[in-house]
Design brief:
- The protein has 210 residues and is mainly alpha-helical.
- 70% of the residues lie in helices and 4% in strands.
- The chain is built from ten helices and two strands; from the N terminus they run αααααααββααα.
- Strands 1-2 form a two-stranded antiparallel ribbon.
- Strand 1 and strand 2 (134-137) form a beta hairpin.
């Protein structure tokens, strides 16, 4: 898009991609931390709405000002998608937790594997005046349509789904393990760990433990 539609140089494309990746790193960190306070669903929905609002400047800014749009767009993308793994882990039962998260991501990669081909094919329906012998297309419009659909899909699924923020992953909180052991062994282990921690704290504070 940057080279074909906006006639960016190779250096300008590189700078734009670097800034966009910095935005993704920042978004994943900031929004991920914020989701611990405001909740997973709320954070995903709010950031997805903001990302959708930024699609126009992201796909239709013909100057180098698109660098700013790329930063904030990728901030929203990684801000929303960075929460998804922990959100899925909190929703999944203990025995299938890693399977659900890993399989979901790989299925997503499978579905999106043809996206670049689809985008280029649809982009040919929106031609721009050629530059010499080079054919040009409005890839920004196609990317905006694709990302808008994905944002809407994520918002809908997140809105309809539940949330278990703060779910504990320790073995003493695993229902399957409790069923296997009858609850006794795991419960005793949890109490033993708590007692050991309390004893260590007493020793650290100078108290004699009998």
């Amino acid at each position: 898009m940057l080279e074909n539609q906006f006639d960016f140089s190779h250096n300008a494309v590189t700078v734009t991609q670097v800034v966009a990746n910095l935005g993704a790193m920042t978004g994943g960190t900031v929004v991920g931390y914020a989701s611990q306070i405001f909740g997973r669903r709320f954070s995903i929905i709010v950031v997805s709405v903001l990302g959708g609002a930024l699609l126009y400047p992201y796909g239709f800014t013909p100057s180098k000002h698109i660098i700013a749009a790329a930063f904030f767009e990728q901030f929203c993308v990684q801000g929303a998608w960075g929460i998804v793994p922990i959100h899925l882990m909190e929703l999944s039962p203990g025995s299938f937790r890693t399977f659900v998260v890993g399989t979901s991501y790989q299925l997503g990669n499978l579905v999106s594997s043809a996206s670049s081909t689809i985008e280029s094919t649809i982009g040919e329906r929106f031609p721009l005046p050629p530059r010499g012998e080079t054919k040009r297309y409005q890839y920004g419009k196609v990317i905006a349509i694709f990302m808008g659909c994905v944002y809407a899909y994520v918002i809908l699924l997140t809105l309809l789904g539940p949330e278990y923020r703060g779910r504990r992953f320790g073995v003493e909180h695993d229902d399957d393990m409790m069923a296997i052991t009858g609850g006794g062994g795991v419960a005793r282990r949890g109490r033993s760990d708590e007692k050991r921690g309390s004893s260590d704290a007493d020793v650290g504070g100078g108290k004699e433990v009998v």
